[in-house]
Amino acid sequence: MASEVWGARWLNSTSEIARKYMEVSARKQSLVCLAADRNTMSGLFELLEEVGPYIAALKTHVDLVDDWSAEKWKDFCTAAKEADLLIFEDRKFADIGKISRSQMAGIYDIRSWSDLVTSHLISGPDVVDGLQAGWGDVGRVGGVLLLAQMSSRGNLLSPEYTDQVVTKGREHPGVFGFIGNGSRPEELSELRKKVGQEKMIWTPGVNLAVGDGEMGQRYGDPREAVLAGSDCIIVGSGIHRSKNPRASAKSYAEVSWNALIERES
Ligand code: S5P
After folding, report:
1. What pLDDT, in 10s, does the model give residues 214-229?
2. What is the distance in A from the centroid of ligand 1 to the CA of 17?
3. 108 alpha carbon to ligand 1 midpoint, in Å?
């Protein structure tokens, strides 16, 4: 099933997690990663229950939950696994290797439940080794998404910086892929050319209502993002703030899946 739509991407992939993502996306016919930016555990459980069937991955910001507890989080992650989802902690690591390794532990113990994490490469390539060592410390494997571009206006990730992140990230087996700017399809096409076909590009900054979002966020069209090379659209408020999150998630799933078929055929 995954090979039918993902074709050579699936056949040539050497990443266990990338293959897992392609399989889940094909099972659910969705390239949607939900940015589950709700700040209560009940809000998170409710969202998961409503939209689980229409999404392929669940992105969290574990440190913004007001009533977080280790026990409730464990239950939440179990529910996410039961809903056939990859769990992606958007921690945006940026420290030196050994500290990143320790930050995978600590109170949130990200290494024990995340399949994917985000990281900047500003401190150099050892951050990726540190994060991989973190998963290794608990006998798990995971993938790092490097921020190659950002969706927020005025960000400091220059085209030269993006190029360096891609050049270094492409060679590293611990790098699952890159975060690209979903709000600008032309930037995304350029990014895809540089990234090649092996690694993933996941894109925030997409919404069916394009334009400016809150506090400097920018939104582009999800179909255009996928056609320009995005492998996964990261959608937050477009789903969790909508009047009917389930119906919205279904719409994003359909748009993204149809665009993938259009792109790959
Ligand atoms: O450049 C970025 C990178 C990320 S990971 N821009 C982003 O918006 N994000 C994340 O995507 C951000 O942290 C948030 O969780 C999500 C976008 O949410 P939305 O509500 O704007 O769709």
Report:
1. 999 999 999 999 999 9
2. 21
3. 21
CATH number of the domain residue 193 falls in: 3.20.20.70
Closest protein CA for atom 13 of ligand 1 = 90
Alpha carbon 83 to its chain centroid, in Å, reads 17
182 CA to centre of ligand 1 in angstroms: 10
Provide the number of structural domains found in the chain: 1
Q: Which segments of the chain have a pLDDT < 50?
A: none
Q: What is the pLDDT of residues 100-123, one digit of tens each?
A: 999 999 999 999 999 999 999 999
Q: Is the CB of 35 under 6 A from ligand 1?
A: yes
Long-range contact set of residues 69-72: C-beta below 8 Å, sequence gap at least 24? 69/41, 70/107, 70/109, 72/41
pTM: 0.98
CA distance linking residue 226 with residue 230, whole number of Å: 4
